[in-house]
Amino acid sequence: MTTVTPYRSGRRAGRDGFAQLLRAEWTKLRTVRGWMAGLTLAVLLIVMLGVLFATGSRSSCMNGPIEVPCPAPPTGPGGEAVQDRFYFVHQQLDGDGSITVRVNSMTGQLRKPDVTPGVRNVVPGVTPWAKAGVMIKQSVRQGAAYAAMMVTGSHGVRMQHDFTEDVAGRPGGAPRWLRLTRTGETIVGEESADGTRWTRVGTALLATGKVRIGLFAASPGDLTVTRDVVGGSTTASRFAEVTADMDQVSVRGVTAGGTWARDDIGVALEADGTPHHPGGLVRSGDTFRVTGVGDIAPDVERMPAERVLTGVLVGLVAVIVVAVAFVTSEYRRGLIRTTLLASPRRSRALAAKAVVIFAAAFAFGLVAAGVTVPVGRALLAGNGNVLAPLAPLTAVRMIAGTAGLLAVAAVLALALGSLFRRSAVAVIAAIVVIVVPYVLATTSLLPDEAARWLLRLTPAAGFAIQQSMTAYEQVTARFAPADGFFPLAPWAGFAVLCAYAALALALAAHRLRRRDV
């Protein structure tokens, strides 16, 4: 009988360990000048295109024939960008107190596209988020903290406070009774259908001390979305005004016999100093007819921080090319056999490549985003652009998330390179699944809902990690991908990209184990 002695490697245990594989793969990456040049090019493209965008974006306002810097827009109690434009009829409240009112009706007028050129086309109606009711506000300064109970055009009764907070009451419109009660720092909002049985809607906190308490009315613009021939949409916001008839006004806690002050908060002035679309009050006995325009809500129209990252899409292509070449070059030259000899467990060799390309793309991407965001925002602000505030944690998430986007996309491209084993095919496949869906969704080439589904179901969802703006239900705006709003939350969209990369890597590992090189 013949005895076969099994082969035993002369290497010491652990010689083909994962750490050694990582070191070997890193050595390959850093010693190939073309690959390092490609990653460096990605950084330069991201920074240069971001700076070019920032230097070319300028904004200013006109004071008659003179160009002047635009006035600083208001910010809310938390530093957030806000709209604070409404008509306010109010008295001073020094301590605890309350205000009760019955909103009898809401009417208004809307500016529609002119049927006859030069003839204003104004029709009756109110916008869905037109609002009127009672308010307690820290002061009449724009952006000051507040709490309000209101009847809206189509969204029922709401309690809103400090611009971003919105609590729904019962559906339906006027007539409706509303009440705000202040006790210490706590404000309670209630509603009633008959003025007898009250239902609490919500609560808010407002610092103690002197405040203004009264009636208000506001109406955001009439938003219309027109479908373009090619499939996208065009948005327009036209003038809208609301008038609310309110009676049964009862104010407790103010000085007896106090007079009502009137403020058209946030009204813009024409060149001659007259108000542009002013609000107003007409009082007849106990009935207050309050007319207002504007909105009290977060401002989502300012330039977001991610605009300076326009070069990421181009830089991503350079990263994809490097990641694909990192694996396909070994197949093309037959060196993959040498790589696999160093690790009989083939999937470990692929995993080592994935870790190295991830780390390299992340490091280069971190440098690119870390330079582009602060420099680009400084240039934009210097050119007079009105920027959306950027919270520190959001900035960290955006910068690190951009680096993560490039890194995970590199892993996905690497996996496609291992699957197809041909550079051109793998690069095209990576661009088709990551870049093309993003371009289609954000350039108004598709209907909004189709664009949203692309950014839910494809790896392009990962770009959501860059979004700094928040979509609010109570804001009249078009929250579409073409306007920078993703259908998934930042980390949820990034998770979709990670899932695709993990799936592709698993398929590549399976093929590598099952088929010869």
Note the main attributes of this structure:
about 35% helix, alpha+beta, Jelly Rolls, about 525 residues, 7-stranded antiparallel sheet, disordered N terminus, 8-stranded antiparallel sheet
Break the fold down into its secondary structure elements and pairings:
Elements: H1 18-31, H2 33-56, E1 61-63, E2 66-68, E3 82-84, E4 86-93, E5 97-112, E6 121-124, E7 131-137, E8 146-152, E9 157-161, E10 165-168, E11 176-183, E12 186-192, E13 199-205, E14 211-218, E15 222-227, E16 233-238, E17 240-252, E18 261-265, E19 268-269, E20 275-276, E21 280-284, E22 287-292, E23 296-298, H3 312-333, H4 336-341, H5 346-382, H6 392-420, H7 423-442, H8 448-457, H9 490-514
Antiparallel strand pairs: 1-2, 3-23, 4-14, 4-18, 5-6, 5-11, 5-17, 7-8, 7-14, 8-9, 9-10, 11-12, 12-13, 15-16, 17-22, 19-20, 21-22
Helix pairs in contact: 1-5, 2-3, 2-5, 3-6, 3-7, 5-6, 5-9, 6-7, 6-9, 7-8
Structural features, described:
By secondary structure, the protein is an alpha+beta fold. The protein has two domains: 241 residues; 213 residues, Sandwich (Jelly Rolls), CATH 2.60.120. Helices cover 36% and strands 27% of the residues. It is built from nine helices and 23 strands. Strands 5, 6, 11, 12, 13, 17, 21 and 22 form an eight-stranded antiparallel beta sheet that branches. α3 packs antiparallel against α7 and α5 runs antiparallel to α9. The N terminus is likely disordered.
